[in-house]
Amino acid sequence: MGSAFPVLYSLALQLLQSCEGRQRTCDFSAPCSLLPWTAWSPCNATCQSPNHLGTRVRKRTLARRNEEGCDHLFPSARELATRTLVQTEECQLPPETCDPATICGEGPKEGFPCGEPTPAFYYSAIEHDCLPFTYLGCKGGRNRFSSAEACKTFCLPVVEALPAWRRERMGLLQFKTSQLSSTGATDESEGPVGQNPACHEEVNTGEECDPPVEWESY
Q1: Where are the alpha helices (DSSP H) in 54-99?
Q2: CB 105 within 8 A of CB 166
Q3: Compositional bias of type Acidic residues: which residue ranges (predicted)?
């Protein structure tokens, strides 16, 4: 019997861990359960940032924000105050992001209402000129300039140096991106948070969340 106990204990511990793990990640019934991490935020780097470097964050909160006895989960005072874990990592813009030809090839994007609308200009690959549009205040695209002169200074020399096939492709790209903008689509997607595959299994959320086990006799 003495040699059988460690085996039985190990099996029981695995079942307990499996049960508690699924309670934490599926129905959040375990004490101090945390919701899944959010999707990563967009990288906050700009084309003016050194080496195009920046940071992005994701967050994770308690399933029950007012639950007591969970302070040990939060390493910083700010995280403890908000009951939210915050993970930060360095990110870098892809090289093509700050390519002037790529920026000028985007279609005009008005953005979303946020404060006062402002007049702006964008480079039109179809007209090979800078045309006016109204910027609504939030988000929008990068092919946006405060004046026609700034737009022409930035885009015209770059575009004129491109081969004809590339300029034609820019016109097609602008048409496609403007269509996406008009339908409300955006290239800044916030992907769904992945769920643990175990969450799709049937789980009894009471004391037993694993099916009964047939113990062998030792």
Answers
A1: 77-82
A2: no
A3: 204-218
* Residues 107-153: tens digit of each pLDDT: 888 888 988 899 999 999 988 999 999 999 888 888 999 999 999 99
Structure tokens at 115: 């404060």
User: DSSP letters along 97-144, please?
Assistant: GG-HHHHHTSPP---EEEEEEEEEEEEETTTTEEEEEEEEEES--S--
* pTM, two decimal places: 0.49
- CB-based contacts of 191-200 (< 8 A; 24+ apart in sequence): 191/39, 192/39, 193/36, 193/37, 193/38, 193/39, 194/36, 195/26, 195/36, 196/22, 196/25, 196/26, 198/21, 198/22, 198/25, 198/26, 199/22, 199/25, 199/26
Element (H, E) at 19: helix 4-22
Structural domains of the chain ordered from first start: 18-95 (no CATH), 99-182 (4.10.410.10)
Beta strands in the chain, from DSSP E residues, in sequence order: 53-61, 84-92, 112-124, 129-138
Cβ atoms within 10 Å, residue 81: 9
Query: How many whole angstroms separate alpha carbon 87 and alpha carbon 58?
Result: 5
Q: Which residues contact 84 (CB under 8 A, 6 or more apart)?
A: 59, 60, 61, 62, 74
CA 125/CA 162 separation, integer angstroms: 12
